Amino acid sequence: MSRIIENPDKIKKAEIVVGIPSYREADSIGFVVSMVDEGLSRFFRRKDSVIINVDNHSPDNTKKAFLGTKTRTPKLYISTPEGAKGKGKNIRNLFEAGVELGARAIVMVDADLKSITPQWIQYLLEPIYLGHDYVIPIYVRHKYDGTITNNIAYPLTRALYGLRTRQPIAGDFSFSGRLARAYLTEKTWNDNVSEFGIDIWMTTTAIARGFKVCQAFLGAPKSHRAKDPGAHLGDMFHQVVSTIFHLIVDFEYLWKDTSDSMPTSIFGFGLGVKEEPPTVHVNTENLRESFVKGMEKYGGVWEKVIAPLNLEDILRLKGMAAPQIRVPADLWARILFDYIVAFRDELVERSELISSLIPIYYIRTLDYVNETKEMGTKEAEEFLEIECRGMEEEKYYLIAKWNQTPRRDGIPSIAQYLSD
Predict the structure, then answer these.
(1) Per-residue pLDDT reduced to its tens digit, 174-229
(2) Greatest Cα-to-Cα distance within the chain, rounded to the nearest angstrom
(3) Distance between alpha carbon 292 and the CA centroid of its chain, in Å?
(4) 3-state SS class at 5
(5) Cα separations (Å) of 115 from 31, 38, 142, 320?
(6) Cα-atom radius of gyration of the chain, to the nearest Å?
(7) For residue range 299-332, what is the model confidence (pLDDT) as tens digits?
(8) Is 42 helix (H, G, I), strand (E, B) or coil?
(9) What is the rounded CA–CA span in Å between residue 16 and residue 44?
């Protein structure tokens, strides 16, 4: 893929590279650049560093805002060609730039961050200098911020690959130059990875290929453009979940032989942060209605994909009021595993398959809201830990279903439940 490069400081070599992927971030990128520059100047002033904006040819003057922000650290702007969008495309440009500049350590941080501090750069980079290849952040988030992480990405990553990485699609990571080179030669890259699938692809690949992975507390709660999980899924759900499922197929040899999950090494000072993360509002009635509409639209797909007893448990929820909805962790795990096997076997066209999972994801999210509505951040984290352990205990179901395909008779009728 061709690149558009502006290198006003004539940078040819750098030990540290900090990349900021962007699309239409003119109003926010300047603050992030300033915090990155302060972190590099304060904690790594003896290192040759560069800040790179990896952009999707933003039409809103993102480039001008980036290059116009005063810094002590040199800057470099790299863009995809006009019309070539996708976060993963930006990150691939970051991999290539890091390798070409001979970087020992590379950091990536979101361009819409409101809570980034100079210390984030310190906390993300120091583990690389201590021999780690991939650093995943831990920060306080509102209990309803990141529901794809809480209900799909985190529990599946730890259950399948045996490593507890709390924010596997965080958007803010650091990695070694060695890992950047490996990413560029990885054969599992696809169109979903070129977009929002990039974060989970990076995390899963680092674990699966045996690189040294750790986590680092960043201190301040993550503050960015948080969204209602029932109203703003867009293409992200498709791209993230499709990437997770593709990688499960690719790395079958690994996860089938992985049993209990274990914690990573963790750097930093824990969750002793008094500041609260920004509130995320959830429209619970919208989640319930989306599930009912999804039953009408995707009932035929559910009958093909979901095992009869699991389907029966889900269909019972149709007539319940939002506060009564419960989707236990073991049921949710089995449904995800049903979908993973259906994805492998292409029982349904894959795009439609992922779309049909969204209404069930909504009802699972509603369950999570119901269970944690009276909990603070710490209590919600403890609850999620119990839920993840419950999902791990169902892994036997995935392995058994993966190894055999016959389905039992007696699939409940969607029409029967819709007419009740």
Answers:
(1) 999 999 999 999 999 999 999 999 999 999 999 999 999 999 998 767 775 555 56
(2) 71
(3) 27
(4) strand
(5) 10, 14, 13, 39
(6) 22
(7) 999 999 999 999 999 999 998 999 999 999 999 9
(8) helix
(9) 9
CA 277 to CA 143: how far, in whole Å?
A: 9
Q: Closest by alpha carbon to 216, among 148, 262, 170?
A: 170
- The distance of Cα 157 from the centroid of its chain, to the nearest Å, equals 10
Q: Is 260 exposed, middle or buried (0-12, 13-18, 19+ CB in 10 A)?
A: exposed
Sign for the pseudo-dihedral over CA of 375, 139, 277, 361 = negative
User: At CA 197, angle to CA 91 and CA 242, rounded to 5?
Assistant: 160
Q: What is the four-CA torsion angle of 264, 268, 272, 274, rounded to 10 degrees?
A: -120
Distance from C-alpha of 337 to C-alpha of 70, rounded to nearest angstrom: 50
- Give DSSP secondary structure letters for 58-125: -TTSHHHHHHHS--SS-EEEEEPPTT---HHHHHHHHHHHHHHTT-SEEEE--TT-SS--HHHHHHHH
**CATH 3.30.428.10, applies to 4-267:** no
Per-residue confidence (pLDDT) for residue 45, from 0 to 100? 96
**69 Cα distance to chain centroid:** 29
Residue written as token pair 């560029």:
184
Nearest to 138 by CA among 269, 278, 43, 281: 269
Listed in sequence order, the residues at least 6 apart from 373 whose beta carbon sits closer than 8 Å to its beta carbon are: none
Each domain of the chain, given as residue ranges in start order, spans 4-267, 284-419
Pairing of strands 4-6, 75-79: antiparallel
Mark 77-95 as b/e (b = at least 16 C-beta within 10 Å).
Answer: bbbbeeebebbbbbbbbbb
Residue 319: count other Cβ atoms within 10 Å of its Cβ.
Answer: 10
Amino acid type, 119: Q
Tell me which residue has tokens 């205990």. Answer: 393
CA angle 176, 178, 182 (to 5 degrees): 115
CA distances from 378 to 144, 169, 257, 369, 381 (A): 13, 20, 32, 15, 5
Residue 267, beta-bridge partner list: 216
In one-letter notation, the amino acid at residue 12 is K
CA distances from 216 to 137, 207, 265, 415 (A): 5, 16, 8, 50
Rounded Cα distance, 244 and 155, in Å: 12
The rounded distance, in Å, linking the Cα atoms of 284 and 221 is 24
